Each structure stands twice: as structure tokens, then as C-alpha cells.
Amino acid sequence: xxxxxxxxxxxxxxxxxxxxxxxxxxxxxxxxxxxxxxxxxxxxxxxxxxxxxxxxxxxxxxxxxxxxxxxxxxxxxxxxxxxxxxxxxxxxxxxxxxxxxxxxxxxxxxxxxxxxxxxxxxxxxxxxxxxxxxxxxxxxxxxxxxxxxxxxxxxxxxxxxxxxxxxxxxxxxxxxxxxxxxxxxxxxxxxxxxxxxxxxxxxxxxxxxxxxxxxxxxxxxxxxxxxxxxxxxxxxxxxxxxxxxxxxxxxxx
Amino acid sequence: xxxxxxxxxxxxxxxxxxxxxxxxxxxxxxxxxxxxxxxxxxxxxxxxxxxxxxxxxxxxxxxxxxxxxxxxxxxxxxxxxxxxxxxxxxxxxxxxxxxxxxxxxxxxxxxxxxxxxxxxxxxxxxxxxxxxxxxxxxxxxxxxxxxxxxxxxxxxxxxxxxxxxxxxxxxxxxxxxxxxxxxxxxxxxxxxxxxxxxxxxxxxxxxxxxxxxxxxxxxxxxxxxxxxxxxxxxxxxxxxxxxxxxxxxxxxxxxxxxxxxxxxxxxxxxxxxxxxxxxxxxxxxxxxxxxxxxxxxxxxxxxxxxxxxxxxxxxxxxxxxxxxxxxxxxxxxxxxxxxxxxxxxxxxxxxxxxxxxxxxxxxxxxxxxxxxxxxxxxxxxxxxxxxxxxxxxxxxxxxx
Lengths: 253, 400
Hints:
The complex is a heterodimer of chains A (about 250) and B (about 400). Chain A has about 250 residues and is an alpha/beta fold. Chain A has helices spanning about 40-50, 70-80, 95-110, 125-135, 150-165, 180-195, 210-215, 235-240, 240-250, and strands spanning about 5-15, 15-25, 30-35, 55-60, 65, 80-85, 170-175, 200-205, 220-225, 225-230. Chain A is globular and about 60 Å long. In chain A, about 45% of the residues are buried. The model of chain A has no long low-confidence stretch (mean pLDDT about 90). By secondary structure, chain B is mainly alpha-helical. Chain B is globular and about 70 Å long. The interface between A and B is medium-sized, with 40 and 28 residues.
């Protein structure tokens, strides 16, 4: 039994069957990649996991509890964090403030009217945020406005913010999209390091095969809303069905 | 000091000094000089400065922090005024219960309107609040006449019960608003040389409340709650995916800012115990938006400056009339004098809104951060020489 169990999930947008009948089991503390051509339903599946979309059928269980019908913030409080394709950070706030917000969310829950204390006097939260910034090489940029950082740093900050909540499952939606090769490699190294240092399950959606094969322990190939195959990376590489549906297409492009 | 850092404590101190010495600061010209019309140190106007200051500080807690632009805040001001006058009619002429009730009622009203309006963001939120405020205004004018006294406005009468006070004074008049016997309208006058300084009880009570309101606003700005509100403004999506429910945060901000408006409304009624529906009209809602943006939305001191600025110029410009203009330009040849006066008279008196519009356009275009940004730029202008020297000293690597 995996930490994330997706059973018979289907989602239809009008006449389009975005997800047919998806079954997926993610083992705890593994790195699981979901790949597939454009329009295969990867993002739809991810949105069903985090509560942005509600599937028409099937079930999604996280750690034995259903996530269906819960709002994104409730699902996050269960221990699922999400990194977006374009980094979603608090652009108007400083890096330090960006880091403190998830720390507050972890300590105080979804809402707390904490209007008496000053942010400066919250030493415990500040220490946590500082430690996380040190860990992620963001400490020197602590007073910078998040919006003025480079794309790579924004990604790093977003991942750091997710990790500050100590999630059990980290979902990454094309974390290297639109990045230069060097930034992509940095992100791969960063994710490897994260995996080494802590007990965390990572589900990654990715276009870039280089990223997928350097990170994933298991790969699910999605095509036209249904899983084609699921296997270890070595087997996926040579799989005729995958070549036909996906790798062949990218090679031609 | 008071849980504030040095910079914020200084700011609070500056505002406190301005409030305490306003009767002197606003009265720089001798009473019988030609410049006396630019004096603003009389009770009625000073009361308006601080009351609208409170209103704008509260509005800024919502708009400046969360970015939700409410276009119906005058509704809470109006509700506050009505509540206070009812308290004067039914309970007593003491302003404390009146002000408390106006804050509570305005807060409850804000809870209701906020709960519905905050289901939407951006322009839809603004339109919803505007619609609610206009609805309140129309209701106050018509259906709710038993409570609001319709077009005439709610006033005190000699038949009011005032169970804890007196229905009428010994000589048969309506009693006046007071703070445990201290009459709000009473004014000490100090004549010093050619100058006349006026110290009004009502002004000082409102001023003290402005300081309290300003202090609470600083604390909210610097608190984790304030940081969350700024995060809401910056990225709601990330808030949701960080396990935070944005709705109670925005609703709390909305209610707090509604209570500030209620306090302002209650104070208005305490200074002059009557309440009319026009206080809820959209122009009144628009005015507080102008004050906040003109002063600098999202800054601490901005709304206070904006409120003072607009109320001062409203008063000064609307006092200038054609005769005054002629007296200024009488040295010029007749034709030229008439031409200049003909142009300028449209910008003064009842046409002063034209001037306000122009000022607002200039500020928004050239100083998007409002008067506060203007101040910062001036500060940098004087500090520039020093900065430039430092820069050349540290600059070692040329830019690519």
C-alpha cells in the first residue's frame, strides 16, 4: 500500500475525456515520475490530487485518507505540498517573509488572528526560516524582494517554502520548464540533495527526459488520459509502446 | 517602546506631536491678516482632520494590506453615525457608549457585507461593495425612515427619553454631547499677540482616538496577521497551497476596517449629534479612496497625510471666491485680471473638486506611491550627494 493511492480516477471536460481510468500507487519515500505527451492529462491528474479539480469518478487516498472534496489548503495541511510550473511565490514580500509564511502555516494552521505580537518577536519562526534559507543557499538574499530574483532562485525559494512545511508528499509540476541547462542541472542536484536529507515522497511531472531519468525511481507513462505503462526507468527507456506514444514523438519534433 | 521598534515609535511620536500642537501649527497667520483665510486651526476643521484620518487609516488596513478596494466604506461610517445618534437619543449624551455602539454595529454590518462581497476579488469585489453602500444609502433615504428619519436626517429632540441622562436641560434646551461632563463643543481660546488659538475638547478626544487607532494600525502592520494580509495581496494561489485559508484573513481585515469607519462615524456624531444618509453616498466612499491613494496606500502615515491634505484644501479652496481672486490680481490690467479670474474661479469655491481631480491625476501619474513617495524622493534629493560619493567609492567592476 503506497502513501498515495489513485484508483479509477476519471475526469471529463465537456466532450473531452481528460482522464480515462487512472490507477496509480506511489510508494512512500520514493521518487515517482509521471510523463506523457502534451494533453496526456498529467496536469489534470495533479490538479485532482491537490483539490483544484474534483474527479468525476474514482478515489484519491493520501495516507489512508480521502482527499476528495477537500479544499487545497486542507489538503496541504494533510501533508501535500505543490510546486508550480511557473514559481508561485509572494513577489511583493522579501525572501525572509516568504520563508516565514509557511512556518506560520505549519505552526498556526489555516487561520490565526495573530495581530498582537510583532513579526520580529516570533523568534522561533524566524529561526526556522533562517535555518531553511541556510539549507537552501538563500540566506544572502533574505532582504531581497522575491519578485526581483532570477528564475532559478525563485524555483529554489518555492521548493524551500514547500519544504518548510515538512510535507510528506512533494508534488512538482514541470520544475525545470523554461530553464537553461545549467539551471536545470542545479535543480536536479537540489532535488537529489533534498531526497537524501529527508524522508519525503516526491511525485514529479516532467517533459524533460534528462530530468526524469536522473531522478525517478519509478515512471508512469500517461497517454490520452490513461496510464500506458508503469515501470523502473531502465525498462521504460526501451519500451516499444512508450517509444511509439511519446519518445518517438519528441524525437521527431 | 509600547512594543514598537524605534522607527515606528518615532512615527507615532511625530503624529502625536502634530495632533497635540495642531491648534498652533494650523494657525500660522495672525487672525486679522490677509493670510488668515489660510488658517485651519479652528475646531470644526481640526475635528474633520482627525476623524477622516481615522477613517483613512482603517481603510488602508484593508486596501493597503490586502489590496481589496472597497468602494462602499462610507456605509460603515453612516451606520456608525446613526448608531451614535440613537445612543444619544435613548441612553445618554455621554460619547463613550455612543462610540462603542457605533463600532459594534459597523463591525457587524461589515461582517455581513464582507461575507458576501469577499466571495469575489478585484473589480467584482469593488462593485459589490459599491452596490451594498448605495443600497444602504437608498434604504436610509426611504424604507428605513423610522430609523434614519429619511431626508431630514436623524436629530436629537426634546422628546427623547435618554434614560441615563436628562431629556432636556434646566433651561429647556437639548443637552450637549459630553465625555463624563466634559462638553465636546466647548473651546478654550488663547489670544497671543495677533494670534488666536483654539483648543476644543471634542478635537482632543478625537485626536486621542486617532493616536490609538494609528497605534493599533502600526501593530497590525508589523504582526504576523499583517504579513498574512500582504501575502494575500501578493499571491492568493500560493496562500492556498501553503495551507492557509485566505477568506477569514480578508474578512477579519474587512471587519476591522469597517469598525474604524464606524468609529469615525460615531465621532462625527459625537461632535455634532446628527446623522444624514448623504454620509453613505458613493462620493463619500470615493473620498476615502482618494485620501488613501493620495497619501500613499500601504504606508502607515500616508492615509493620515492624505486625509489632512484633502480636508485642508477642500476647506481653503472652497472659501476662495471671485471677490477674493479679484483682490489678489487687482494690480494687473483690467482685461488680464478678468481673464485670469475667469479661468481660476472654476477651480475654487464649489468648483474645488476640479482642483482635487487635477491634484489627484498629478499625484497618481508622477508619484504612484502618493505623498509618502514624494517625501521619500525629497529626502533622497537632499541625501543624494552623499550617496553618489559612496557609490563612486565602492564601484570597482564596470557593468557589462
